[in-house]
């Protein structure tokens, strides 16, 4: 996984993800209420953004920066937000990277069809408990 730190890359990713929002949303999403030139204002939660490749990504993951982790058992703090373009990218993330590790309790937040099933399949294959 690659961590995106460049403001231009993050801006491009944001624009790409906005285009992927459901068409059922009313009117276009308004611009952010923060100064786009101030990276600290855009990331008050101290998260980092990871992609499997750039610029043609299959999955995007946000997580708390490692230096901000206080309790590896706290799955509320160790929340992962995920957007993927296909189920295979999610399975690859869960099975073969250090971005998601069983040494730390975590929860995955996402709104795509099949997310629960994909997580269950990988967890079962790895002998992990999923709630």
TrEMBL record:
Pfam family, one: Gly_acyl_tr_N
Residue ranges annotated for the Glycine N-acyltransferase N-terminal domain, each copy included: 1-131
Enzyme class (EC, first level): transferase
Keyword Cytoplasm: no
Protein origin, superkingdom: Eukaryota
Keyword Acyltransferase set for record: yes
InterPro entries: Glycine_N-acyltransferase, Glycine_N-acyltransferase_N
Entry's Gene Ontology cellular component terms: mitochondrion
Region span, Disordered: 19-44
The EC number(s) this enzyme carries: 2.3.1.-
A GO molecular-function annotation: glycine N-acyltransferase activity
Keywords, in A-Z order: Acyltransferase, Transferase
Family statement: Belongs to the glycine N-acyltransferase family.
Name of the protein described by the UniProt record: Glycine N-acyltransferase-like protein
Organism, scientific name: Oreocharis arfaki
Gene designation per UniProt: Glyatl2
């Amino acid at each position: 996984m690659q961590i995106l730190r460049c403001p231009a890359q993050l801006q491009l990713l944001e624009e790409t993800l906005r285009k992927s929002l459901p068409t059922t949303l009313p009117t276009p999403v308004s611009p952010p209420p923060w100064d786009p030139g101030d990276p600290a204002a855009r990331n008050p939660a101290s998260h980092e953004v990871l992609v499997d490749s750039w610029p043609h990504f299959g999955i995007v993951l946000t997580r708390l920066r490692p230096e901000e982790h206080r309790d590896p058992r706290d799955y509320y703090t160790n929340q992962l937000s995920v957007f993927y373009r296909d189920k295979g990218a999610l399975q690859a993330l869960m099975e073969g990277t250090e971005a998601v590790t069983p040494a730390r309790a975590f929860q995955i937040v996402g709104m795509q069809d099949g997310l629960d099933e994909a997580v269950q399949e990988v967890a079962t294959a790895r002998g992990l408990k999923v709630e």
